[in-house]
Design goal:
- This protein has nine helices and four strands; from the N terminus they run βαβαββααααααα.
- By secondary structure, it is of the alpha+beta class.
- A four-stranded mixed β-sheet has the order 2-1-3-4, covered by helices on one side.
- The protein starts with a strand and ends in a 9-residue tail after the last helix.
- The chain folds into two domains: about 1-85, 3-Layer(aba) Sandwich (Glutaredoxin), CATH 3.40.30; about 90-205, Glutathione S-transferase Yfyf (Class Pi), Chain A, domain 2 (Up-down Bundle), CATH 1.20.1050.10.
Length: about 220
């Protein structure tokens, strides 16, 4: 297995957590999103992912080469091929619920705060640094506040987002909290998310996946 990753990419971070939770060995191929004009824009990486985004993932399964992009698709593939440490509940209703938590982060919060969106705000639209950061905090805090409301009110919330075993939802939550803290978001009204995040960060898989522990960490 090979993961094309950037240490601070929250989407790459999600996949690293999933790989470590499942105890899978993989090689990291660092793709620096800032240096050299952004290595994701190179011809060699565009041949792997024309979207010029990380993560990208390669594997070989049942005699076939596997080339995947999009973090949740990669994690779903790992879930199907390596089900021994499940990241989704067995019950279809609960599976859908955990997916909805993950998608709330990956499809609602993250896209409007992606590096290329923030760059467009500053480089193309001429938005100032303070305004850019305010944009980030607005959308991140709004999305996390909604997630806090859901988890605080749901009886299925345990030590983690769903029960007492990490799931796909936790794989998405921890990287988003990491980014929220980088941008000084106000998490004081989100005690459930803060508690779950701390519980996750005590696990070996999350420690290994953390940005600071990556080979390209700065």
């Amino acid at each position: 297995m090979k993961l094309y990753s950037y240490f601070r990419s929250s989407a790459s971070y999600r996949v690293r957590i999933a790989l470590h939770l499942k105890g899978l060995d993989f090689d990291t191929v660092p793709i620096h999103l800032v240096k050299h004009g952004g290595e994701q824009h190179s011809d060699s990486f565009r041949a792997i992912n024309p979207d010029e985004l990380v993560p990208a993932f390669s594997d070989r399964h049942e005699g076939r080469d596997v080339e995947l992009t999009q973090s949740l698709a990669i994690i779903e593939y790992l879930e199907e091929v390596h089900p021994e440490v499940p990241l989704l509940p067995k019950n279809p209703i609960d599976r859908a619920y955990v997916r909805s938590l993950a998608l709330a982060i990956a499809c609602e919060i993250h896209p409007v705060n992606n590096l290329r969106v923030l760059r467009y705000l500053t480089k193309t639209l001429g938005v100032g640094e303070d305004q850019k950061n305010a944009w980030y905090r607005h959308w991140c805090e709004a999305g996390l506040a909604a997630l806090e409301q859901r988890l605080a009110a749901d009886a299925r919330t345990g030590r983690y987002c769903f029960g007492d075993t990490p799931t796909l939802a936790d794989c998405c939550l921890v990287p988003q909290i990491f980014n929220a803290q980088r941008f000084n978001c106000d998490l004081s009204r989100m005690p459930t998310l803060t508690r779950i995040n701390q519980a996750c960060l005590e696990l070996d898989a999350f420690i290994k996946a953390a940005p600071v522990n990556q080979p390209d960490a700065e």
